[in-house]
Amino acid sequence: MSVYGKLNETDLSEQARLIGGREQSMRYLVQLSRSTPALSDTERSPENERFGCEARVWMTVNYTAEGRLQLGVDSEARIVKALLLIIASALDGATRAQVAAYDLDAHLQRVGLGAFLTASRRNGLRSVVQAIKER
């Protein structure tokens, strides 16, 4: 079972290419955040708000009848939203087994973001992944 959710090596290589080095990664993350629609006002409800990140985070977590995760993510902070979208790229559409096996730290390292994140931001993302796994 892959620790990268539903992503394969080709997907990971493409993410790493797009993310690039530190300066390029920040531009990519801001662009990713801007180009992805926000959750609706209904989805940005108190029930869907997740705590543990420095910025406000909302997340919708549902499973289809086929057992595939449907994941929606949003944040007030562009960089946090983009990092959530990178997690969603691995987990949206994943099976429960793929979600359970997902390793955030391995994913971030593989795509070149591991060295750029503060401990606080990484811990916030870990709490989001844990909340997804508990659903």
UniProtKB/TrEMBL annotation:
Family matches, as InterPro entries: Fe-S_metab-assoc_dom
UniProt domain Fe-S metabolism associated: residue ranges: 18-134
Xref: Pfam families: SufE (PF02657)
Taxonomy, superkingdom: Bacteria
Family named by the database record: Belongs to the SufE family.
Stated name of the protein: Fe-S metabolism associated domain-containing protein
Originating organism: Pseudidiomarina aestuarii
